[in-house]
Amino acid sequence: MNDVEAVVRRFRDAGLKITPQRLSIFELVMKDRSHPSADDIYRKMLEKHPSISFTTVYKTLQTLRDFGQIIEIIIDPERAHYDPVVTDHYHTFCSKCREIKDFLPNPVTKAVPVGPDNGFMVQSVQVHMKGICGHCRD
What we know:
Elements: H1 3-13, H2 20-31, H3 38-48, H4 54-66, E1 71-76, E2 79-83, E3 90-94, E4 100-103, E5 128-131, H5 134-137
Parallel strand pairs: 3-5
Antiparallel strand pairs: 1-2, 3-4
Helix pairs in contact: 1-2, 2-4, 3-4
C-alpha cells in the first residue's frame, strides 16, 4: 500500500469523504519534498481544480497533520510549511531564498537527556537551523 492509499483509508475510517480535490492534495503533498506552504499547494491545485478553495486545502493539510501523515514546519516567519517525511529529521532554512532542506539528525542532538528515565516522553522533535545557504552566499 502506498502513502496515498494509506491516507485515503485513514480518511474513510474517520468518516471523511474522499473528494477529487482531497485526493489531488494527498497525491501532491505525499510526493512533494520541497516543503511547500499551504499557498504553494493551493496555487498548484488551482491548475487541476480551478474552483478549489484555499479553505479546502488548508483544512485538508490540518487533517493530514492531525492524522500524523505530514509534519507542519514552523520555521519560516511568513508561513507554515508541510513535509510528508514524518521520521525524525531536521531542517535548515535560508533566510534569503527561503528554501527549506532536510538534514539527518546529528548524534549530539540525540544525546539530550529526555525520555522515560526522567519521566518525559518525547512525542516529536523539530530542530531548525536558520542561516544563509551556500548558493545565496556566493
